[in-house]
Amino acid sequence: MGSPIPIVNHRSVKSYPPGQTLFQRAQMVLGKEAADSLYEMQWPETDEGKDRGLAGLCIRGVCANPGITRSTANRIFLFVNRRLVYDRGLISAMFQGYRGRIMKGRYPVGAVCVELPCDQVDVNVHPTKREIKFITPGPVYQALSLAVAKALSRGQDNKWSYARAVMTEKKESPTPLQAALKSASLLEKRLTPDLFESVSASQLPPVYKFFDPPPESFEAAESPEKSWVPEPETTAHNQPPLVSHANQPSSPDITTPFSKIEPFRATQSDLRVIGQVLNVYIVVEKEKHLILVDQHAAHERIVFEALLNRYKRMDVQSQSLTVPEVLELSHKEALVLESIMTDLADLGIRVEPFGGTSFVIKAVPVLVAQKHVGPMVVEMVEKISQANGAGLKDDWLEDALATMACHRSLRGGQSMSLKEMTALVAQLFTCENPMHCPHGRPVFVSFDARSLEKLFKRLV
Fold it and tell me: Which residues on adjacent β-strands are paired with residue 351?
């Protein structure tokens, strides 16, 4: 049986055909922008998973590619036992599943259907029954977070489709004069015999719709404070090589100079670096795709995973500063820094009180440039201060590592040789998550042959 059709002013607002699957209905509700970029999610994925977590819990739904976002949460549809609800915990769990894949201030797009025993839900916490309360919310939120993360990970298996650049031709509203001319042209066509009316529709060339526009342009994706200003003193020709240390593992690490890393011979043999555009983007050809790689985001991902792996192995190496750097903080910031000094030491940053609200930085990790130490620590303190200490410790530590990686990475405007670019791209595709930088920005976008043909009007 089909769902009731909403009527406003004697006109149907939406009408969906009956008998659709959840995925098909989600494609229609979420719109054509997201229709081709949805991933199905399910928890538990197997019958064996039913024994774990909350008994009777089942989650189904769809989540959109991280490139499709909104400025509000109004495109997240939540259903609990087939009732449309609003629950901050479920939205937060979706964000956790998108962690590292979506930019701050943006909301994902998707639909979630949660089924669980009725005695596990309190529906009487709001007069309109819009909000609900889970009796044991932890397992529900954890299951949703895992379901979203696994769905996105499966989507990343096809890197080029996942990173597809979506484009459109913007339709400008016609001016009154253009509208009048168009109307006159249509009238003339109706009064004039069509010389080609005998041509059948099957003989006409196929018409392809253009992709929908991305939520953000490449320029808007870069945060205002990181404006890709070229640094003359750090061009590839006069920049000191990345530091290499003793007992270095043989596998490529971020401390190895790019020019000394051999590009892949087997799995990446079809990868060909073409060049550099605007000293910001690396142009790559691979598997019949044209790929644009953001060199800063790529290097940031590489450095972040190197720092994270060293932290997990408790193999953080520090270097003492030749001239210790003094920080002058506010009272609130000083309290925050005092509370995290032990955690900073685990990351390789040694900070000591220096009287009042002043602190002195005496050592930093070997992967971090000494000239970036002060601003980096202040940025960490400011983020924690703004969040009022909220969030898990692991989340804060990852944010700190992301800040360190950002300050250590290559900058936009920095020229690179072909060998360095090849080594950078080769390192990128060895990362656990090469698709996004630690802040959620895309590392690369891809154009397949069909997209390029449409750009050049080979397909219209």
Answer: 361
